[in-house]
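help with this:

***
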Amino acid sequence: MSAVPASVTVEFVDAILARDLSRARGLLHPAIDFRAMTPSRVWEAEDPAGVEDVLRAWFEHPDRDVERVEPTEPASVEDTVRVGWRVYGRGADGPFVYEQQAFVREEGAHVVWLRVMCSGPRPTAGRTAPA
């Protein structure tokens, strides 16, 4: 695997980190091929609006307060870039963390193919997110 050059994928992750889901949507190809898996559900969307709806469901969950989102180390596998982020927050049961890893393919100025895998929220046993 190699380092990841600056690209639309980096812009997409920056939008996720900022929780600017409208900007993330704008980076998606109109015919985006999107699938994702969380511990309890498989998600699919056929257009940028559908992907934005999925992202909102993940980041704007009514039972959880997202405090911070941090990037994980990216890498590329030929034409596919692996990127990710860790989400720190607090819910009714206390602090939690989850990680999502995404595999992305781009075409021009758009993300055309996106697969996301999520660990699901994990309790942090009272630890807070690193500063």
About this structure: The CA atoms of residues 15 and 120 lie 21 Å apart. Strands lie at 28-38, 41-45, 64-71, 75-77, 80-91, 94-107, 110-118, 122-123.
